Amino acid sequence: MIEVRNLHKAFGTVKAVDGVGFTARDGEITGLLGPNGAGKTTTLRMLYTLMQPDDGQVLVDGIDAAADPLAVRRALGVLPDARGLYKRLTARENIEYFARLHGIDEATLRKRHDALVDALEMRDILDRRTEGFSQGQRVKTAIARALIHDPRNVILDEPTNGLDVMATRGLRRFMQQLKAEGRCVLFSSHIMQEVAALCDRIVVIAHGRVVADETPDALRAQTGETNLEDAFVKIIGTDEGLAA
Amino acid sequence: MNAVASKARRAGAMLTVFLKEVRENLRDRRTVLSAFITGPLLGPVLFVMLINMQVSMQLDKIDKPLHVPVIGAQYAPHLLDALREGGIVSDAAVADPGQAVRKQDADVVLRIAADYGAAWRKGEPVQVEMFYDSSRQDTSSAVERVQKLVEAYARQQGAMRLVARGMSPGTAWPVLVAKRDQATPQSRAVLLFAMLPYFFVIALFIGGMPLAIDLTAGERERQSLEPLFANPVARWKILAGKLAAICAFSCASLAITLFAFAVVGQFIPAEKLGMELDLGWHFAGTVLLLMLPLVLLLASLQSLVAAFAKSYREAQTYVSLLMMVPAIPSALLAFLPIKAQSWMYAVPLLGQNLGIMQQLRGDGIAADQLMLCLAGTLAAALVAMGVTAQIYRSERLAISG
Predict the structure, then answer these.
(1) What CATH architecture is A1-75+152-159+179-244?
(2) List of chain B residues whose C-beta atoms are within 8 Å of the C-beta of residue A100
(3) CA-nearest residue of chain A to B223?
(4) ipTM of the modeled complex
């Protein structure tokens, strides 16, 4: 479970995140929706302790990120906005590198590795160097690398960015599986249909603030719009930066 | 039990980073080429070429007959005989001796006045004009050779005239200079080999450079730092692993250079120049020891400089500029007559330079100088590492976008 309380982060005079708070529960998929530049990535970066919040608190499985960032990172699996594979290493070596950084033993590594490779359908690319991978293959490798230590909480920053339809569908299935395994899945997106199709709970962020935190149905009811797209536009107040 | 496991994991993380960096960079052909071939071998190859050029130039000057145009040769047949014995071949006269020298047609031209014979017979001093250009350094040995021969002839003839008048030749030369050159064959080599320490530093530099750039600026450009930092490993451990990889590559590069110098050292005809050069195992070992803290210092500095760059190319520019710095002590020592003070050994680069030169001179480096050199550079390396670690902790570093 990930709990975020009143997060603030400013870059100079720009308030990127201005009082964000929400809870992502286990066994649920929580979507962080907002237009480009709303503060989604900055919020997530504070969750996985890459950045320090100016104010506010992050709790992962009850551990305070400010007090014990290493324990928080151990409890998280993170696919950052920057995928950053090592192109001179194969997909397998990329995954094993992160496994060793987590300090997991070889037997667990094998088991977990096989499960992930099957779930992500990436066995055919395992022993190729990642240089020249397609966007979809890159995301699969990055996700496998991020989840190799079997984390209870999964953070995915715009996971479907740049993927084709088939790859997107595969990734959605994978996220459903993570949810079925009882994990807490938090992902960000600016694509409404994706959020609507996947999420148990939607947190809408605009201008660094949470403007809605509801189930998809509640959102529709709250705004009086039957169409989610219209509901979002109404909440955010503008359709700028949202993709259908 | 838990503490032991976590301790093993901590060491493991550093080792994991180190092994991954080494493996990844060994797969990059450009890195391997520059770290293990072009970088370390550039110095020895350049060195051998320079030395051989020097040797053949010196040998040419000594053995070969020197052609000198002589104007008015017919007036002084005895002088010309003496010159011929000294290996000087008199060429046909030139019309304008000044121009011949300026246009580099001749290194040196002699002019003998028409009244040479008459004056000589009367026992009056005669003049032999020597045209040369002192700004042409390559001709200086030819000029010196001609001048010495003429002067020797003059002294010899003078002595004979004194003897003919019943006087001791010693009366004309009340003071004689007796030269006592204190240079040893090793110390003569030093002048020529002043750039040797710089070659070693260059090897260190080039060996580590691709990694230093790749590990900070390159990783940022590839956007791989952010996922890396999401792992439950403290950043200083990641940095330590990366620095270790840089050090490993620069040490390998230095070792190859030392080995190459030890091999080519056998083929350098240093004795022909009256020099003695020992680049063997003892020398290599001392250099390696002197350089060890410098490896750490350079690795930290390179990473630090590269961390400020936004892209690989930018980092390459910065680090190349940094490479100029080690040339300073080499240049200073080569051109300025600095007497080594003991504090100088504590200055990074300067200390190594002095130590290596001393080793070359055959004096050996004293234990306290060695300690001072190691301690001074190590202290600087620790400071540089501390600063780099601080930069590495900054939020800005990881964020690529």
Answers:
(1) 3-Layer(aba) Sandwich (3.40)
(2) 12-13, 16
(3) A84
(4) 0.89
